[in-house]
Amino acid sequence: TGSIKPWKRILLYGPPGTGKSRLAQAVSSEIKSTFYCVSSSDLVSSWVGESEKLIKELFHHATKQTGRSVVFIDEIDSICRQRSSREEEYSRRIKTELLKQMEGADTAHLSDKIFLLCATNCPWELDSAFLRRFQKRIFIPLPDKKARIELMKIHTKDNKIVMSEEDWTVLGEQTEGYSGSDLANLTLESLFCPIRELQTSKKWKQKDDQFVPCKEDEDADLKASIVEIPADKVRPREVTLNDFLSALKTHRKTVTQEEIQKFENFTKSMGEQG
């Protein structure tokens, strides 16, 4: 390929809960590399000089592997914020050491050893010296309707769900603006709805030698509280669209439109769509 070489320093940015960490893991698995996953907090120590040592050891260890290593630093903005006159000396030293290691990993004999991935929820706060060193700055957006439906189906695959494709479509529309973590929390709340009903139900229908709660306007095979029924004879009903719609009332999206606009503005000027 001559002088054409693959990118080795990539910044992933986007709202919280969009799967940036999982994407980094997937990249590492795809290229069958050693994966180093650290948060910026793992690299910060209260002892003078210790943070620089931790950063140096991380990159040194990664270069000693027989194959390629993927170094993933999450929440990189915590240690690489824009410089200011009020910045502490230890913060400057951490930045200097990280820049030094990034440049060192790009030297001829190490250029194929380390693939650096970093993630942030606020790329506009990064020091420009670091932004310049990322060959690609990729925006990881909120999931679209199709992805939201697929994510919720994944979260519910081991549970008894009674929902048609039309129901899933309705739910996909109702969850616009939700992040992956928002959807995980919403799904968990929905799955708990039938379980909570077990505690308050007084009317039960018999299905396959077990008792399932039934609605007040339905005929019951048994009238009793849950404590009066053997534990192995009770099971929750299936989860339905109504459980999700009920959960939506208390589990709302956590990313604001203003935040989305900031990401879009940054992408136009400094990044690219993922």
From TrEMBL:
Alphabetical keyword list: ATP-binding, Nucleotide-binding
SMART domains, per database record: AAA
UniProt keyword Thylakoid present: no
GO biological process: endosomal transport; vacuole organization
Key word Amino-acid biosynthesis present: no
Single GO MF descriptor: ATP binding
InterPro entries to which the protein is assigned, alphabetical: AAA+_ATPase, AAA_lid_3, ATPase_AAA_core, ATPase_AAA_CS, MT-severing_AAA_ATPase, P-loop_NTPase, Spast_Vps4_C
Domain of life of the organism encoding this protein: Eukaryota
UniProt-recorded name of the protein: Vacuolar protein sorting-associated protein 4
Organism: Magallana gigas
